[in-house]
UniProtKB/TrEMBL annotation:
Record's protein name: HTH gntR-type domain-containing protein
Gene Ontology terms for molecular function: DNA binding; DNA-binding transcription factor activity
UniProt keyword Transcription regulation, yes or no: yes
Species annotation: Pseudooceanicola atlanticus
InterPro entries according to UniProt: GntR_C, TF_FadR/GntR_C, Tscrpt_reg_HTH_GntR, WH-like_DNA-bd_sf, WH_DNA-bd_sf
Domain HTH gntR-type span(s) in chain numbering: 8-75
Keyword entries, A-Z: DNA-binding, Transcription, Transcription regulation
Phylogenetic lineage: Bacteria, Pseudomonadati, Pseudomonadota, Alphaproteobacteria, Rhodobacterales
This protein's record includes keyword Methyltransferase: no
Length: 211
């Protein structure tokens, strides 16, 4: 094993791959995360795997039971809906606050870069790239708003939102984010919040239909 494999960032790489695997269904709810299997798969030390599992547990992705190890938690339809309801409010608030702060510092540049990243991801054949670009867009809104609390809250929500399949086409999603950004660039806080909340509401409505 190399020092690079056991570096502090190795645990985060495992976390990211497991989250990606949840979206791609390489990992599923109820699946046991056996330490020997993860050590072999990622080529890291036991301590690195344990750190990754601890991070996933702290984020509410896995549960650790004594003598049973770690398992990926199941998210019920009701819990998924609650997560999306929280996301609707938080993303809407981030968009509103961003509109108020858009002309400060490099905020316009940051938002344009996040929007460009979404455009690039939308053209990619890898759907998970869109998930990552979505997360970046949301984090950028919180950063522009100047709120570490919003940024941390969105980061925690992203962990759970990864379980929700993308319900818009890449073109629809990009158009939706462009619409949100347009309102933010114009400094229109009310419209920015309305459009951001409507964007999340699409997923809530689909979940209600499936239920």
């Amino acid at each position: 094993m190399t020092d690079a494999a056991d570096s502090p960032s190795a645990a985060e790489l495992i976390v990211r791959d497991i989250l990606r695997g949840l979206y791609q269904q390489r990992y599923v709810a109820g699946q046991r995360l056996a330490e020997p299997d993860l050590i072999a798969r990622y080529g890291v030390s036991r301590s690195t795997v344990r750190e990754a599992i601890k991070r996933l547990a702290a984020q509410g992705v896995v549960e650790i039971r004594r003598h049973q190890g770690a398992r990926i938690l199941n998210v019920t339809a009701a819990e998924a809906r609650n997560i999306l309801l929280i996301a609707e409010m938080i993303v809407g608030l981030a968009a509103r606050q961003s509109a108020h702060e858009i002309d400060k510092g490099d905020n316009r540049k940051l938002l344009q870069e996040a929007l460009d990243a979404m455009a690039t991801a939308s053209a990619s054949s890898e759907k998970f790239d869109v998930v990552l670009a979505r997360n970046r867009f949301h984090r950028t809104l919180a950063r522009i708003a100047g709120s570490p609390v919003l940024e941390n809250t969105l980061a925690n929500l992203h962990v759970h939102l990864v379980r929700n399949k993308l319900v818009m086409t890449p073109e629809q999603r990009l158009a939706s984010y462009q619409s949100i950004a347009e309102a933010i660039f114009a400094g229109d806080a009310e419209t920015a919040e309305t459009r951001a909340r409507s964007h999340v509401r699409v997923m809530i409505d689909l979940l209600d239909q499936d239920g």
